[in-house]
UniProtKB/TrEMBL annotation:
GO molecular function: DNA binding; DNA-binding transcription factor activity; pyridoxal phosphate binding; transaminase activity
Alphabetized UniProt keyword annotations: Aminotransferase, DNA-binding, Pyridoxal phosphate, Transcription, Transcription regulation, Transferase
Domain HTH gntR-type: 12-80
Keyword DNA-binding on entry: yes
Database matches in CDD domains: AAT_like, WHTH_GntR
Family the UniProt entry places it in: In the C-terminal section; belongs to the class-I pyridoxal-phosphate-dependent aminotransferase family.
Pfam families referenced in this protein's UniProt entry, alphabetically: Aminotran_1_2, GntR
PROSITE patterns per the UniProt record, alphabetical: HTH_GNTR
Protein name, entry field: Aminotransferase
Organism: Levilactobacillus koreensis
Length: 464
């Protein structure tokens, strides 16, 4: 008999390892035609895997003609196993299995709803509507200027853009970039991928809030990183659960979106930020601060960033997508110099350096005289639309529970109807279901940025 566990190939997923093992045993005549295999439960115990893993391997091998199942008798090697026959085409089905998730089904439903009814109230949008993106005028760039600009490209990105962003952070009193490395990325999601792939190994653990847009990210599964969620409570992050999770699961990174959090719009207080930093320092947990909405903080409402409070313990991420549209695909990381150099090495090795043309155009946008007034006007317009939407919801849906955010462009609503997504869609109102953020079906996110005066009238009529 084979030494099942010792002979098992060291590959993943395990059902493929089992398939390879049994195929090899048949080829080597160590399993003979019509020979009975151990029962699934018994073989799972021998291989130290779940029974479902063995069952899936048996299904593959049966479909390929190597095994046969006999009801009530067990699983046997086929009388004439087709182990030496090469298929005439790739079985693409094995690559496509289990790729449909509840997240992808909801996204498909959102896409279909928009296509079938372009006039619906789209509260499920992720970004600003085109009409609200700051009007920056003509950004002049001829080809010769672009060729000359390429001479200023560094490992971290386009030098004038790096300098512009450093000035931005200093002038807005967010933090200083002394002993820090600022590197350009292809957006905030790529920045997160770069940080995780540079600093973590398979099996390491990260934590983030619940609900959170991080819940929909595929990056954790792609990198083999274990995610754990920390609930948000009325006062902010549940620090007792955070500490317990850090101790139980050896959390390496805490991912936070502390300013106008997506999806709740929560703004963590200064006291909360200080307590989070102190706790993470105690357990040597690094913090990744996602600050894509930091642009929309007014000076009156601004709370020091985590990066400002603990510059050597925090890796800072931001991007332009919430201001200039999702297709901008330009972000940046600010990290302590030692970490920044590591990120640069990995970025270069993976060849995920953002387009030079995009960097040059972004710098032109950020340095135009219309940029700062445009952000000020955007912040004012968002505040007006937020107040109008809140007034409509409170008047016509008093049972809906939500906290009015101080910025951003999302409202996070909880209520009691688990079919709220479908019921609102019937009224031509599109929302983002709470399940996309790790929350129950009774919650949803509503983007009020597109609710201009005309949309406000329609929204009021549709909810009456």
């Amino acid at each position: 008999m084979p030494n099942w566990y010792a002979d098992l190939p060291d590959i993943k997923p395990k059902y493929l390892a089992i398939s390879q093992l049994i195929t090899g045993l048949i080829q080597e005549d160590r399993l003979l035609p019509s020979q009975r295999l151990p029962a699934e439960r018994e073989l799972a115990k021998l291989l130290r895997v779940d029974r479902s893993t063995v069952s899936r391997a048996f299904q593959e091998l049966t479909a390929n003609g190597l095994l046969v199942k006999k009801g009530g008798s067990g699983t046997f090697v086929a009388p004439v196993p087709t182990v030496n026959t090469l298929p005439d085409k790739i079985n693409w089905g094995q690559y496509l299995r289990n790729t449909t998730t509840s997240h992808s089904l909801i996204q498909r439903k959102l896409t279909q709803a928009r296509a079938l009814n372009p006039h619906l109230i789209d509260g499920a949008a992720n970004e600003l509507p085109m009409a609200l993106i700051p009007q920056l005028g003509d950004l002049q760039l001829n080809w010769q200027d672009f060729l000359l600009a390429q001479r200023q490209e560094q490992d971290a990105g386009y030098l004038p853009l790096i300098q512009t962003l450093e000035r931005h952070h200093t002038q807005r009193q967010q933090f200083h970039t002394d002993r820090q490395t600022l590197l350009i990325t292809g957006g905030a999601q790529q920045a997160l991928l770069l940080i995780l792939s540079s600093l973590l190994k398979i099996g390491d653990a990260v934590a983030f809030t619940k609900p959170s847009y991080f819940a929909t990210s595929a990056v954790f599964k792609t990198l083999g990183v274990r995610p754990f969620t920390i609930p948000l409570i009325p006062t902010g992050l549940d620090l007792a659960v955070l500490e317990k999770t850090i101790r139980q699961h050896r959390i390496k990174l805490l991912l936070l979106n502390p300013t106008f959090q997506n999806p709740t719009g929560l703004l963590l207080s200064l006291e909360q930020r200080q307590r989070i930093i102190k706790l993470c320092q105690k357990y040597q947990v690094a913090i990744v601060e996602d600050d894509v909405f930091g642009w929309l903080s007014t000076k009156q409402d601004a709370i020091p960033t985590l990066k400002a409070l603990a510059p050597q313990n925090v890796i800072y991420i931001s991007s332009l997508s919430k201001l200039l549209g999702s297709s901008t695909r330009l972000g940046w990381i600010v990290a302590p110099d030692a970490i920044g150099q590591r990120l640069l090495q990995v970025q270069k090795r993976l060849d995920i350096v953002p387009s030079m043309l995009a960097q040059v155009m972004a710098n032109l946008a950020l340095t135009t005289v219309a940029f700062d007034p445009g952000i000020t006007q955007l912040t004012k317009e968002l505040a007006q639309r937020r107040q109008a939407t809140v007034a409509i919801f409170r008047s016509l849906r008093p049972e809906w529970q939500f906290i009015t955010p101080q910025g951003g462009f999302y409202l996070w609503v909880t209520q009691t109807d688990p079919t709220i997504f479908d019921h609102l869609l019937e009224r031509q109102i599109l929302v983002k279901p709470g399940t996309l953020y790790g929350a129950p079906k009774t919650a949803f996110r509503f983007n009020f940025a597109g609710i201009d005066l005309e949309q406000q009238r329609r929204l009021r009529d549709l909810l009456m």
